[in-house]
Design brief:
Blueprint: H1 3-17, E1 22-23, H2 34-39, E2 52-57, E3 62-67, E4 71-75, E5 79-92, E6 95-106, E7 109-112, E8 115-119, E9 122-126, E10 131-135, E11 165-167
Length: about 170
């Protein structure tokens, strides 16, 4: 390989090694959870279920969160949520966009949640053609795969407050 070729490879590799990607092992070896990371963008930790095994977040807000397999649960029996093993999107202050890997069952259809925005004490979830806003109080606890919030606090059922706004 020529000297110019070696220099080009070194420059290319140094670009990758200094890219601003955060992960659970970032911050000088200190572990920082994905739940801490989403709170930095003004979102509650309960947007993601318990059990995220890792995540990546770059300087442009592109993220990936990893679960150990898919995760499905019901909330108060009226909403069924499904998280794929990899969830991706773009996160910025008060906005999650281009979201993939999260879907909700509405009546008999599974719809992908494509965007989540925070406005004051409300979170608005968009499936593209419709959206619904919920109080942020519903998302202070992380749901658990299989049982949602029903398995929190010794089996007590915590009811989710119904949507404040809904549009088609």
């Amino acid at each position: 390989m020529s000297r110019t070729g070696i220099i080009a490879v070194i420059v290319l590799l140094s670009t990758f090694s200094t890219s601003p990607t955060l992960s659970a092992a970032a911050n000088g070896g200190e572990s920082r959870s994905v739940y801490d990371a989403i709170e930095d963008f003004n979102f509650p930790m309960g947007l993601l279920p318990k059990g995220v095994t890792g995540y990546e977040l770059d300087g442009n807000g592109k993220f990936r969160a990893y679960l150990n397999g898919s995760c499905r649960f019901s909330l108060e029996g009226s909403y069924q949520l499904n998280y794929k093993s990899t969830i991706t999107g773009t996160i910025s202050q008060n906005k999650l966009s281009s979201l993939t890997g999260v879907s909700v069952k509405v009546l008999f259809l599974w719809l992908n949640i494509v965007e989540v925005t925070r406005s004051g004490d409300n979170l608005e979830f968009s499936v593209g053609i419709a959206s619904a806003a919920f109080s942020i109080d519903n998302f202070y606890e992380c749901p658990q795969c299989g049982c949602g919030l029903d398995c929190v606090n010794g089996g007590q059922v915590r009811k989710i407050k119904m949507p404040l706004v809904s549009s088609i």
